[in-house]
Write a structure and sequence with these properties.
Order of helices and strands: HHEHHHEHHHH
Number of helices: 9
Shape: globular
Distance between the termini: 26 Å
Strand content: under 5%
Length: 191
């Protein structure tokens, strides 16, 4: 289901439809176990950029991450790869039984299995995510380098990126470098 912001941009009638659809889905699924798998929002956006560039941009229109930020991501061009979690997955409306993090997925799955007595972690649907920490560590290093370079060369653009994903970062306990002064929450800050 696409996020509220996307449908809101289409007009009031669509926003009412999405609200009714969401309410109906929440009611129908109230007896189900619900979990959400989250990932560091900035890591996810860089990963999404590579995915879009590789699979959805055969003509090579998107040259680099900075261009993608300016032309698409920060301009709210709809793409599920860079939607905010709070808008795409409705964590304020859907009462999830558990929040799992991609970075600690293996141990989170074990804890979820113990909590709800689900059985073996081999039975847990993994979709396309890898529970292999080496996979995540290698990609995080690559993505972090891109983000650090952006922070150094385009501080205002980086600040806008932080502000766009600030709610997700706070909601799920993520941060970007504790000492970063690019984005300050609260009065006088950008978020």
């Amino acid at each position: 289901m696409a996020g509220r912001k996307y449908f809101a941009s289409l007009g009031d009638r669509n926003e009412q439809y999405v609200s009714l659809y969401l309410e109906d889905a929440i009611r129908k699924h109230s007896d189900y176990r619900k979990y959400i798998i989250v990932r560091h929002p900035l890591q996810r956006v860089v990963s999404g950029f590579f995915e879009v560039q590789k699979k959805h941009d055969p003509e090579g229109k998107i040259k680099n991450f900075t261009q993608a930020l300016r032309d698409y991501i920060l301009n709210e061009v709809f793409n599920p790869h860079w939607m905010e979690f709070y808008d795409a997955c409705h964590p304020c409306d859907v009462k999830y039984d558990a929040v799992l993090k991609a970075e600690t997925l293996e141990t989170d799955i074990e804890a979820l299995n113990r909590k709800f007595q689900l059985g073996s972690d081999k039975e847990f649907p993994m979709f396309h995510l890898s529970a292999n920490p080496d996979f995540h560590n290698a990609n995080h290093t690559k993505y972090d380098a891109i983000l650090r370079d952006l922070e150094r060369t385009e501080p205002e653009l980086f600040r806008d990126l932080l502000c766009k994903y600030d709610v997700d970062m706070k909601m799920f306990g993520y941060q970007w470098k504790e000492h970063s002064s690019v984005c300050v929450s609260g009065p006088g800050g950008c978020c």
